[in-house]
Design a protein that fits this description.
Blueprint lengths: L2 E2 H7 L6 H9 L3 E3 L2 E2 L5 E2 L4 E6 L2 E7 L9 H5 L2 E3 L7 H5 L13 H10 L3 H13 L36 H8 L5 E5 L3 E5 L7 E8 L4 H11 L5 E2 L7 E6 L2 E8 L2 E9 L11 H17 L3
Helix pairs in contact: 1-2, 6-8, 7-9
Length: 296
């Protein structure tokens, strides 16, 4: 038995309306078992659901399936909340904010902000060090790249990637050692391979984010993963590598764009044998390198 993820996160009261839940899915703010989820993606008992709302990430484990909104006490019985504590108030207070209705910042506003604010990666890395006792490395205001200090990165200035990053199903199978993979998601910005229709065991994905700073994604990984997020370079491009039990992800930066490769194997939760963490990370690294080298 399974239910749609947008219905479920609305039913357990993570979003106020079902339309808001669907919008979060379309914006790429919802993941099921470490993979970006569409509104129609189904969830089952034991799945991990991540929802990014208002700058914070909620991480919950499914223990009961519902598709209609229920009361707060009953909703609390449907999941186990594994969300990390929010960053300290001192960190959040240090992030510059504009008053509602102030409009788009002028060039003068941007120069003033650049002089007084630290980079977003530095803010999140400090928060991660306070919460996790470890920090995965520094970076500049653009999220760890080689841009000049104070220069705003530009979206869409990275290479053009082929469909699925130029990766074939056969190559993904060979590197991950997963069997029977099929391409279930295939569009210009995301591809996902798995043996069956559900994301309940083995999943590999390739995602292309345009106009989304990698520092923001890395900061969230640093705050939410059990192991420290570390600097990692792919084919001469800066990025990060992060691990979680049975999941390995590699992000690669290009100005204000980045790609992310995720390889996950939760077969052990279903009574099977899981691929080793070393194999998962080796696969993610090689797939990232191949994708970058094949870009134009």
């Amino acid at each position: 038995m399974a239910t749609r993820v947008d219905s479920w996160i609305w039913g357990i009261r993570l979003t106020k309306t079902r339309s808001a839940a669907g919008a979060a899915c379309r914006a790429g703010h919802v993941q099921v078992n470490g993979v970006s989820a569409k509104a129609a993606t189904t969830v089952g008992i034991g799945d991990e659901v991540r929802v990014r709302l208002h700058g914070h990430e909620r991480i919950v484990e499914v223990v009961k399936l519902i598709s209609k909104r229920t009361s707060a006490p009953l909703a609390a019985e449907c999941y186990i909340d594994r969300s990390p504590p929010p960053p300290p108030k001192e960190i959040m207070a240090s992030i510059p904010r504009r008053e509602p209705g102030a409009g788009r910042p002028t060039k003068r506003d941007r120069r003033q902000l650049d002089r007084i604010r630290p980079g977003p990666l530095l803010i999140l890395a400090v928060a991660g060090s306070l919460l996790l006792g470890a920090c995965g490395g520094g970076g500049n205001a653009d999220g760890g790249g080689s841009n000049e200090p104070g220069r705003l990165p530009k979206a869409g200035t990275g290479p053009e990637f082929k469909r699925c990053g130029g990766l074939s199903t056969e190559e993904v199978e060979r590197l991950t050692t997963f069997s029977g993979l099929k391409l279930y998601v295939d569009n210009t910005s995301a591809c996902e391979w798995r043996p069956g229709g559900l994301r309940d065991a083995q999943v590999a994905s390739w995602n292309w984010y345009r106009g989304s700073p990698i520092g923001r994604e890395r900061g969230l990984e640093q705050l939410t993963r059990e192991n420290p997020t570390v600097d990692y370079e792919t084919a001469g491009h800066p990025g990060f590598l992060t691990q979680h039990p049975n999941v390995c992800e590699v992000g690669v930066q290009f100005e204000n764009d980045f790609i992310e490769i995720s390889v996950a194997d939760r077969s052990a939760q279903l009574g099977g044998d899981s691929v080793s963490p070393e194999t998962l990370c080796n696969a993610a690294k090689q797939l990232a390198t191949m994708s970058v080298e094949r870009a134009s």
